[in-house]
C-alpha cells in the first residue's frame, strides 16, 4: 500500500504541469537575496575587522554581494534539475 501511495505522490503535478518538487523561480530569487544579505553582512564585518576601514569593507562586500548572488542563483537552479536525493 505504501508503494502505491508513494508512486501516486511522485506522479502528482502542480497546476503548471511541473513536478511539485521543482522550486518556483521567484522563490529561488527571494532565497538568493536573503542568503546574500546574511553573507554580505558577515563579509563586511570580517573585512572591517581585517582592514580597519569601513569604505574598503563595504567595497569588498559590494563586489561579493553581486558576484555571489549570481553564482548562488545559478547553483540553485542547476540543483533544482538534479533528481538525486529528492
Task: Outline the structure in words.
Helices cover 74% and strands 0% of the residues. By secondary structure, the chain is mainly alpha-helical. The protein has one domain. Helix 2 (25-51) runs antiparallel to helix 3. The radius of gyration is 19 Å and the shape is elongated. The model is unreliable at 7-14 (pLDDT under 50). Residues 29-80 form the DUF2061 domain. Pfam families: DUF2061. This is DUF2061 domain-containing protein.
Key phrases:
single chain; 3 helices; 86 residues; mainly alpha
Radius of gyration: 19 Å
Proportion of helical residues: over 70%
Write down the domain tally. 1
Shape category: elongated
- The total of beta strands comes to 0
**How large is the count of helical segments?**
3
**Major beta sheet, specifics?**
none
Structural class: mainly alpha
Query: Helix and strand string, N-terminal first?
Result: HHH
Distance between the termini: 21 Å
Determine the strand fraction and express it as a percent band. under 5%
Outline of the structure:
With 86 residues, this protein is mainly α. It has helices at 2-11, 25-51, 54-80.
Layout: helices, strands, pairs:
Blueprint: H1 2-11, H2 25-51, H3 54-80
Helix pairs in contact: 2-3
